[in-house]
Automatic annotation (TrEMBL):
CDD domains: HTH_ARSR. The keyword Transcription regulation applies. InterPro entries: ArsR-like_HTH (IPR011991), HTH_ArsR_DNA-bd_dom (IPR001845), Metal_resp_trans_reg (IPR051011), WH-like_DNA-bd_sf (IPR036388), WH_DNA-bd_sf (IPR036390). NCBIfam families: HTH_metalloreg. The lineage of its organism: Bacteria, Pseudomonadati, Nitrospirota, Nitrospiria, Nitrospirales. Residues 3-95 form the HTH arsR-type domain. Gene3D superfamilies: Winged helix-like DNA-binding domain superfamily/Winged helix DNA-binding domain (1.10.10.10). GO terms for molecular function: DNA binding; DNA-binding transcription factor activity. Keywords: DNA-binding, Transcription, Transcription regulation. This is Metalloregulator ArsR/SmtB family transcription factor.
Length: 99
């Protein structure tokens, strides 16, 4: 039996979103942009842990950050936010939907 060669970039993106906190961050950003304080409150996560997860998501192109004064604002890039499938994210190789 042959196993289909899965794209390394797909596997790495799936590995990134396999963490429950990162997945929760992506789901939280589906409703719009948020700063770190808003995400901390919504997800009940410590700032240092949240910053680590946001860095991993940003490094993998799954979130974007813009600075407004001293505040970092996080959003989903247009290619990740999948408004055509309801509450879902598009990883390029597959879509993940939230119930």
């Amino acid at each position: 039996m042959k196993i289909k060669n899965t794209s390394p970039s797909c596997a790495s993106k799936l590995k990134v979103v396999s963490d429950p906190t990162r997945l929760a961050v992506l789901e939280a950003l589906m409703s719009g942009q948020k700063n770190v304080g808003e995400l901390m409150e919504q997800l009940d996560v410590e700032q240092s842990l949240l910053s680590h997860h946001l860095s991993v998501l940003r490094d993998n192109g799954l979130v974007e950050a813009t600075r407004e004064g001293k505040t970092m604002i996080y959003t989903l890039p247009d290619n990740v936010a999948d408004s055509t499938s309801g509450k879902a994210i598009n990883l390029g190789c597959c879509k993940i939907s939230f119930d």
